[in-house]
Amino acid sequence: MGALQFLIMGVTHPGELRSMIGYKIWRDNRDITDPKEFADTGYDRESMKRCWDLLDQTSRSFSMVIKELEGELARVVCLFYLVLRALDTVEDDMTVPNSVKLPLLRDFHLKLHEPGWTFNGSGPNEKDRAVLVEFDVIQKEFALLDQKYQQVIGDVARKMGKGMADFAALATPELPVAEVNSIADYDLYCHYVAGLVGEGLSGLFSSSGKERSFLKDQLTLSNSMGLLLQKTNIYRDIKEDVDEGRGFWPRAIWGKYGFNSMKELTDESRYRDAQWAANEMVLDALRHSCDALDYLTLLKNQSVFNFVAIPAVMAMATLERCFMNPLILKQNVKIRKGEAVQIILRSTNPRDVAFMFRDYARKIHAKVPKDEPNMLRFSISCARIEQWCEHHYPSFLTIQQGADGKATTGIDPMSTDARAPLYLDLVKQAREAAEAERREKFMDDLRARGIIKPAVPETEEEKREREERRLKMENEPFPWVMVIGCVGALLAVMVGMGYGIIYLVMKYAD
């Protein structure tokens, strides 16, 4: 960014500028080139050094979060990304005929165990062709990975390659990229290209010991996390994909608005209909948001959480930025760098991430026009995110720092939520029960030490005598004579004192 852009940001978004400056000065990023990190990052090997370079070339955003992963997990995920990037490059390259592409996609997982294999058949304009031209370097480092990691990566590459080939096989000379027809087909395609990535990452996290073993079995949540990111990218990249002859939006969405092909979506004369189709793509992506939030609550390692949370929040931010934005059909729309930095700084715990999801959902809902065909569905979808946040992190509760420095939960004193007094009653009852239990334990301790003598049970004779005394007192007549006598004596005294006071006043008045 130039000085002018920083100046404009300082005027229009001063908070983002401050975040960028603070991030640059205070952020302590992991240095993979540090000799102390070589055992985990492998940067002392020329092959692995080249793999890190390839990662930087193919993805700046993922490169940053991958490098921050703890220990050897950063190197493992780096190679996992490069393998799948190579596979994705084969699929996306429209210059590779299906006679070559389909067998390569289906057998790509076997190339991971074939030393020296490379592929030079990519088109000259393919931006990520380097990962295929130099795949032997990636394979060399892959062979050095622990078997538990190789198994996960190989399994994902096998499933992904087969799925990509199945969709690529539907293409024809007239339609080089097969259209996605139904929403179910769209979900299946996104599962192959992104959902499997989520499943693979969960497997790697569990295998590394950084996360609990059951995470690898959370296939639905892992898949949803991948679909949220993939569908956001497909929605945002509509102009680029149409220009390059690709089309991943399902016909079930754009076809209902009268379009015969995806190219017609960029026709400015039909902007309104194209906008409704684009909005429905956002609606489809939002249905994965709550699963993504559920997945984040399962993570316990901070670096893994940051790795997963940051792209997820950026996806929500991208959906909000592109929603009802006419530029999406003309160019690639991205969030501001300052906003991205703020997301990185805040994506440190499930609560703050959930609140950012909620805030972006509110902004999307606020921009829904009155004539939006899916206005009610948008309200429901955004309300589900709101409900998820309120269920897991009630708004009437606040997190406070205790005297010992630890975080505690308390009632927001400014809250008008009707649940607050109910919660306070529950807290009061729990406190009273705990106090009663404490007193009882204290008395039991005194009895055990002999300080308090246990009560001796009454004998039958003592019970009979106590009952006789009670009956005698109940049957005795009320002592009216004594009461009247006492009252009369009291009145006589008061009258006497009154006359005495009057006599003294009369005597000394003169």
From TrEMBL:
One Pfam family from the record: SQS_PSY
Pathway(s) where this gene product acts: Terpene metabolism; lanosterol biosynthesis; lanosterol from farnesyl diphosphate: step 1/3
Primary site of residence: membrane
Known cofactor(s): Mg(2+)
EC assignment: 2.5.1.21
Any one GO MF annotation of this record: D-glucose transmembrane transporter activity
InterPro entries found in the cross-reference section: Isoprenoid_synthase_dom_sf (IPR008949), Squ/phyt_synthse (IPR002060), Squal_synth-like (IPR006449), Squalene/phytoene_synthase_CS (IPR019845), Trans_IPPS_euk-type (IPR044844), Trans_IPPS_HH (IPR033904)
Record's function text: Catalyzes the condensation of 2 farnesyl pyrophosphate (FPP) moieties to form squalene.
Family that this chain belongs to: Belongs to the phytoene/squalene synthase family.
This protein's name: Squalene synthase
